Model the fold of this input.
Amino acid sequence: MKQFVIIGNSAAGIAATEAIRQRDKTSKIIVISDEDYYAYCRCLISYYLAGELKEEMILYRSKDFYENNNIELYLNRRVLRVDAKKNHIVFEDKSKLGFDVLLVATGARPKFPEIKGIKKNGVFGFRTIKDAKQLSGLLPVTKTACVLGGGLVGLKVADALRKRNTEVKVIVKSKQILSQMLDIEAAHLLQERLESNGIDVILGQDVTEIIGNGDIKAVKLDSGKIFGCSMVVVAKGVSPNIEIIKEAGLKFNEGILCDNFMQTTVPSIYAAGDVCESFDITLGKTTVNAIWPIAVEQGRIAGLNMAGDKLEYVGSVGMNSIEFFGLPAISLGVYKVKEEERKAFEELVYLDRKAKVYKKLVLKDDILLGAVLVGDIKNSGLYLRIIKERIKVSDFKHKLLRENFGYLDIMHHLKEKENLYIHRSKAYV
Amino acid sequence: MKQLYYDIEKCLGCKSCEFACAVAHSKSQDLFGMIFEESLSLPRKKVLSSKGKNYPVSCRHCKEPKCVEACMAAALVYDSQNGMVLHDERRCVGCWNCVMVCPYGAIRPDLKTKIPIRCDRCKDKSEPACVKACPTGAIIWQEELILYTK
Done:
């Protein structure tokens, strides 16, 4: 019997516990969280803030999940460090907990820029249910809010605040919104949709100061402009929570480095989710892909391998899906090609501005590396599969962006051979 | 566990299955009632054609479903007892993560209702509507298959 310890009680942590239990019904599993909630759907806190979902609907697993799976859950416990030599972790209160195999799934936290006033009351990150509740609690007395950052989280917050009748300005340093996910054409389409629904977007400017004595009164931009507001949400990306392993001898860059088995450079320690840096198929190198689906995928592989399996991860592909006021957008892998590298890449583009449909595929030597889809997202999963399996698209490249492109066009190029289509002449039931 | 199979030599591409599917998932359960419903019921199945052959495509109910992994609302779950991917509409927020990752392109976003459209094998009926509707018997609903090749 082993003792599995999992630090982190969200996507990767839960996927890992389920995977361990799939193989090992008896060993001890301890899950540690620094929050005081059962696992919840972190990405749904903006829906909670918008008033679209009740609190009980954002629980990720039923309340008896831990008991049913014989998992010990430590809530509200902060881990101080990992001791890889002694195989134990140390909590903030200096108490220790031993492990045979450890999963670090500590996630990430919002980055706060070092500007004047950033520590004031009324400045929020947006990562936890606690953040959402605090924001929500202030809304009855808040008429205007500024969101710093035009990424996925920032825009989801802005959307939610707008739905709660708050005037919202989103202040974006880049020349476009969603610069980590979309190219400029796609960003324009979405920005239009946000603005026509009452969300102000200010591009190419950064906040230099948050003004107010006690309560927040305004933000000051680098252009000198001042916007009045009584609430500020900071959504300028996240950084992996790697502090607890910094002294442990594990290799790390931005995140904890993992091999294709989700194992760190110390064999008894695995990592998964937003804290880990693993191989990215389209970039051809390690990176942190901090999104929910990848956290679950990695957590599952880590869990199975922790329990003795030898399952290899093919690597991740950075991707995102969003929808604002009825306009959906998905981005996969390489979504933008640098000007100086244009020659090496090929772009296939379909654009219908009136219908708000934009599709772009990025290829190199007939290998699909990425896609941006706005308005029409239905074939996204097929593109992702082509990217992941690195299928040469030469034979069907001309069909890729057609309206009727579908599974059939790639079926014969896939590794998997399905048996649900029967050719009677060849086979008998 | 039962699976849907397709006899490609028999499929005419008539799309009767698509119609029957849309009707079976409409409120009124009736073609003429269906077309007047507020949000049009969409077929969970699509017949695609290539080189003169027709292939109905719908959710495979994968044993290791990528859509379930990707679902950030835990609205999609895998029911191992019945070998099916189930969807809880009350939990779904329409984030389209499932559409983003489905390796068969078998989930379509219904932008009006914000619900992903995918085959539920007509689980509350005696057999899937597409099976009943197929005029040539090309859709086969039977226990999982062992293939004997000549």
